[in-house]
Amino acid sequence: MRSYQLEYLQNIPVSTAEAWDFFSSPLNLAKITPEDMAFTVTSKPSMVSKMYPGMLITYKVSPLLGIKLDWMTEITHVAEGKYFVDEQRFGPYKFWHHQHHFREIQGGTEMKDIVTYGLPLGPIGTLANNLLIAAKLRNVFEYRKRKITELFGTL
After folding, report:
1. Residues contacting 130, CB < 8 A, separation 6+
2. What distance in Å separates the CA atoms of residue 82 and residue 129, rounded to the nearest whole number?
């Protein structure tokens, strides 16, 4: 099976503690996801308040063509204030592994996302990635970058 990897880096003018508080809350994810994806957290808010390894989070998402899908991720690793990892348990990908890293820098925080994913359907999945999915993911992260700048400013 073929895998793909995307990496995004953004410097934001807030402390690492502030960045951690915002990005480690699954409830804030909808605030930085494009509206056309109709992203909603379906887990009970009380179940996703404080992130911990083993936490399961459920969502509804419409990644392509307005088709609503269920998605579940598990938080597999957490180092408070430094990084966390979410992995898909079921959803639109064959696999999804998303690392979120935070590092204190002069005047703020460096935030790095590393996404590794695979698609079902062999060659059809490869074609879909080349035609649609890779571009869609790039657009999602570019949108996030703009929203994060709106929310926190620039460094």
Report:
1. none
2. 31
Residues 6+ apart with CB under 8 A from 90: 70, 71, 72
- Structural domains in the chain plus CATH codes: 3-152 (3.30.530.20)
pTM above the 0.85 mark? Answer: yes
Going from the C-alpha of 137 to that of each of 17, 29, 140, the distances in angstroms are 27, 15, 5
Looking at residue 86, what DSSP letter applies? E
Residues 41, 148, 20, 84, CA torsion sign: positive
Task: Look at residue 19 and tell me whether its pLDDT is greater than 90.
Answer: yes
Count Cβ atoms below 10 Å from residue 82 Cβ, excluding itself.
13
Contacts of 54 (CB under 8 A, 6+ apart): 74, 75, 76
